[in-house]
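Hi F.,

I've been meaning to write this up properly since the lab meeting, where we talked about keeping a consistent format for the predictions we share between groups. The idea is simple: the sequence comes first, exactly as it goes in, then the structure tokens exactly as they come out, then a line or two of notes. No screenshots and no reformatting. I'm using this chain as the first example so we have something concrete to point to.
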Amino acid sequence: MTAKEILAKLVSFNILSKESNLPIIDWISDYIKSYGIDTVYVYSKDKTQASLHCRIGPSVDGGIILSGHTDVVPVKGQPWNTNPFELVEKDKKLYGRGACDMKGFLACFLSVLPKMVATDLKKPIYFAFSYDEEIGCISAPELVAHIKNYYSEKPKYAIIGEPSMMQPIIGQKGILDILTEINGSEGHSSGINKEVSAIHESARLVMWLENKMKILANSTTNQHFSPPHSTIHVGKFNGGIATNVVANKVILEWEIRSIPQNETTTILSEFEDYCRELEREKQQLFPTFKIKSTKLHPPVPCLETSKNASIVDFIFDVNGSSNVSYVSYATEAGQFAEAGLESIICGPGSITQAHRANEYISIEQLNLGVEMIDKIVYKLSV
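Output, unedited:
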């Protein structure tokens, strides 16, 4: 199958984060096994989802992992011009949800599998497929740990094929998403002086987060990133039932995106200290006033691959690049690096097409992705 044919099949699987990805994983596994390669499932606790990995080539140290996620973001409410789960070609572009982010890269390396099997590889190539990447890179740590423990040899490199226009990316910000619940008192708004409004106190918390970002921006910067500092953003603010009712509950959902010089958990800890301070103040008026924060996923680490790392020279050789870049979004690359693999982000398509209606990958980019995988096969066979 060609990369385009495989991509059409992958796009046809309407699998969002948190949903069972077994249909697409089973299809991928069957495809790989049809070439005589064994696959390994790494199931979620409830067995409804699974990551998958396999090895092509000899059991020797120094191989490379090609990795990507199988889940996509929702299409509900987006003005698509075509069926998002049917690959449509128009003007040398392939439209479909996940075509760019990041089933295009999966299609690239799966299409080259026949050549890998037929080639006398001197070092192995591993495939790795994860789930729930779009909601916090949930499964990658367990996947990479399983790969390291399952095989007797040690892989050296990992390429996470997020859309980068085939440009090597060696740095990314870390991320942590948090849900904060504020529980105040309820009453008639005419007596606001006797109540503790969850909305009013939530506004204080939002202003603390805003001021904290300003402090970070003025104290610690990293010019590789845009913006060059850690950011804090409140994306959801839900609470209240009427203008004349003091709100007794608010839920905030917010995120921290950190440069390598800052820790997301440290920023959260400082926020928690302020929450305890606010609780002590407001509990004098309403004793059960409470603020509770919950991490929505484990912290996703930054990626800090050195320009002098050998994987940089490796990727320059196989895709013709001579420069590296940095991004402010998070990927699973930081988790592969944290596990001890030299890691880099490099894949076909543009991140500007991700998560939006009429997502597409150009045929040119898809072909460049296949070309890079072909060169990896050659490089590992000489």
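Notes:
The chain has two domains: 3-171+302-379, 174-295.
The mean pLDDT is 97.

If this format works for you, I'll send the rest the same way.

G.
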